[in-house]
Amino acid sequence: MKKDMILQISTDVSHVLGILDIFGFECFDSNGIEQLCINFVNERLQQYFVKNYLVSCRNDLQKEGLIDDEESFKIVQLYEDRISTIEKYLFTVINDMCLSTVPNSSSTLIRQVNAKNCPATRRFLNIRKENFVIQHYCGTVQYSAYDLLSKNTDKIPDEITITFSMSTNKFLHSLITKNSQHQVNGKVKKPTMLSKLRYNVDLLLQELNKCDTHYIRCIKPQRLNSHEWDRDNLRKQLANTGILEALPLARCKYPIYFIYWDFFKRYSRKRTANCSNLRTACKNILESSSLNDDNSLVHYGKRLIFLRESVFLQLEAARRRYRAECVWKIESFWLKYSKYLFARIKIHIFVSIIKAQ
After folding, report:
1. Is the full-model pTM beyond 0.90?
2. Are 11 and 171 in contact (CB under 8 A)?
């Protein structure tokens, strides 16, 4: 197979299973533009997770009459303000200075950012000596301004540009075409590392909006000794993955919930095909199991039934017992039927022997 055929990208795909695996949040003793890019992407993805998953879940709970607060709106607004501050008051200044024909230095960059900063944005962005300090969702990170402008220019070596532009492979040629110009606010400008990062993150989020997304947060706990975990390290990992930030929104009094029909199918012992009132039927199931005495353990919504964990465990235990009883009855019936068949066979053989004599 030719190399150019291997690199061709087919876009005619109706169903795609994609895995997005990125660097986690980074905070070292010395942080540069690499950490700034990684942490900005994590910031945008955390905002997407909070806005499109957790807030939508809370809106569903609010429709079911379970919660009534404005906490989700405040948290979403906090993310929008933080990202807007980073983009407008830091990224824009860095990009403008990189595209400027006037020579600039890191000290000039610090003065420019400090001049545009205002009290409303200082809770997210500050200046400390020759460094930028950003308050991210998981903590404060200090970024060095040294080499920030030169690295943000992101100039591709001329040898690569010439080689890729002369290539007959469409994929390689498109890489140079995409990097040769970049549109910002309707104007074509030379791309920088930060401008390309923002552009690609926007494309990524557009693709995620088309997908049914599921989330996996990975941590790696470490032991201090054979009997004790490193709690500080574990807490830091939980913060860096955004789990601690998401807990206030994810917290719910009733962690288990079912659609009424699913609850009825799972726990009803009489599978009625057409149940006129599923909510009443679900109440009857709980009453028959003596689990409806305490109203604080169950909440009946418009479309969903919510359960405390203790109720769910009792229902599952009762379901297992009932299924075990059904299995025992089937086995007993089968044993009796087998004995009956064996007796009939013996009688048939005995009658056949008598007739033969």
Report:
1. no
2. no
